[in-house]
Amino acid sequence: MKNKYLLEESLGYKLFQASRLMTNTLNRHFKEQGFLLTHEQWQILSRLYEKDGQTQHELARINEKDQPSVSRLIDNMIKRGLIVRKAHPSDKRINLIYLTECSKQMEEEYTALAIQTIQEAAFEIDEKELEICLQVLDRIRVNLK
Amino acid sequence: MKNKYLLEESLGYKLFQASRLMTNTLNRHFKEQGFLLTHEQWQILSRLYEKDGQTQHELARINEKDQPSVSRLIDNMIKRGLIVRKAHPSDKRINLIYLTECSKQMEEEYTALAIQTIQEAAFEIDEKELEICLQVLDRIRVNLK
DNA sequence: AGTATCTACTTGTTTACACAAGAAGTCCTT
DNA sequence: AAGGACTTCTTGTGTAAACAAGTAGATACT
Fold first, then answer.
1. Domain A38-105 - what CATH class?
2. pTM of the entire structure?
């Protein structure tokens, strides 16, 4: 008997679809609240809430994106008044990225929507099983990096 | 003590990064073998290997994408000679999508790379824990759909 | 000092996504 | 048979990804 590959049952496909549903749901929540924010922009903001004034290089590194992606993501966020670029005091190559008053004030509301999305996703999932899932995801990241 | 939200530790972020690593790895494998194929295109092909001659609407539905995305994805795949559009015999609205001789011949090689990617991702992960993770992913999809 | 190398960032190109709106064909109902 | 509703697909627009190539500033070496 042939053991056929089925896309639908594969780890890659399930991961991909679950991830996309979560990011789409978060995007929808932002939109429903009238916030012009994408989940990618939220990733950047969230890093700045943890530590304001990081370089683009650092933001790319910790978010595991390449620099061109972050460069343009930041362009869009500046257009929307979420962040600003400031020159590094001594190294002219470097841009330091800072939150604006506007985005600082929104931290709680944005964070609440992120947490809400995770709670919706994790609804009625056993806590131990969720923990195991998170560990597996960590290991996948280690394996592929 | 304040229980702060940490992006890095969140389900959404871990899912997103693990998923992106898997799709990027699959893309890289295709490229290394000289195959002009993206993971999104592989999703479509894989569905056609299961059942040739599906409509765009059906392909969009089962892959959980919207129709415009599938329409343009199919445009690209036609350009690369992976599939063809054929008119439905009685309903002129409908395009039926068929594999080409070329893509039919590649099924085994493409599938091998998909399986290899999953094996790399799942390396040294306990089988029971992986199974739990897959179930959690299924439940996340149910919760958010 | 002068050249080579490295670093941080930007620009160009292609692929793909989501949402909105439009075009064309089919079906239903009277 | 005619009008309206529904279905299928395409086009328009904006966001973001990866990879390649380019620019400008800092550093290191002789």
1. mainly alpha
2. 0.94
